[in-house]
C-alpha cells in the first residue's frame, strides 16, 4: 500500500508538502499545479489516508467494534423532495438500511468533486459504502472503488463496471410504442431529456433509443419536429408542447411517448389549454407511475417502475458488499409493467 514517501517521490516534492495537501493544511501555501500532481498521484498509487480507510480496504472491520454502519447517499439534496421518482427510491433505501441498524448519510456531488473534501467525506466521516444517484466523474468512481463499495442507480451508471440496480429503460419505451402501434397509431412523437451534463444529448439516452428502435421496427417515420428534448424540466415540456401545437394544428402527432410522468403531465396541460382532447386528439403515455399521475386530467397511462424495490435492492446490495458477502459488480435489472389509464384509451381512426 502506498505511503506518503511514495507520493512525495512520485511527484518530486517533500513529504511535508504531500502531508499539507492531503490534510488541507492552510498554514503554508502550495501552488495549484503541485496540488493537482499530488492528488493525481494519490489516485494513481492508491494511497489510503488513514487507518479507518485501510481497515475498509482490507475488510478487517467487525460489526461490534470498528464498524461505523454509515452508508452515503450521493444525490442532489432536493431530488428526493421534489421528484416523486427519487423519493420512492430513497424511501426504499432508508427503510431497508434502518432495519439493519445502518445510518444513511446524505452527501452532495460537490463534496465528492472537491479534492480537499473528498478524503474528508469518504474517510474521516467513516462512510462504509456509497449509493450513487447523482452523476459523478469516472475518475472519482475508480478512485473511490479502491476504498469502499459503490452501487449506482439510474441511467448514469448502467454501463459502468460497478454494481448497478436499474430497470431496462430501452425495453420499457419499446413496449409503449408497440402498444400505441397496436392501437392503430402511426404518427407518434417523443418527449424526454438528454444524458450529458447539460442534458442535451438526447440520442444517447436509453428511453429515446427505445423509441427509435420501436419506430424503425414498426416501419414508422420519426418526425424531428415531434421530438422534444425538455432537458428534464417540466416547464420546458409545457412550453415546447405548447409551441408544437400552435405551430401546426392540422399536422400533429396522434400519440406522445414521454420518458417520465412529470414530462407527460406538463405537456398534457399545454394540449388541454389549446382546446385539444386527450386522448381523442393526442394520446399520452408516461414512465415512472408516480402518484400524481393517477390524478392528472385525464389519468395518465404509464410504465410502472418498481422504485421502492430498486431502493430496497440497492440497500441490500451495498450492505452485502460492505460485509464482504458480495465481491463482484453485480447488475440487477428489475421488471416493469404497463399501466393503462384514460390518457391513452381512445384510438384515433
TrEMBL record:
Protein name (record): LacI family transcriptional regulator
InterPro entries xref list: HTH_LacI, LacI/GalR-like_sensor, Lambda_DNA-bd_dom_sf, Peripla_BP_I
A GO molecular-function annotation: transcription cis-regulatory region binding
Matches recorded under SMART domains: HTH_LACI
Keywords on record: DNA-binding, Transcription, Transcription regulation
Domain HTH lacI-type, first and last residues per copy: 2-58
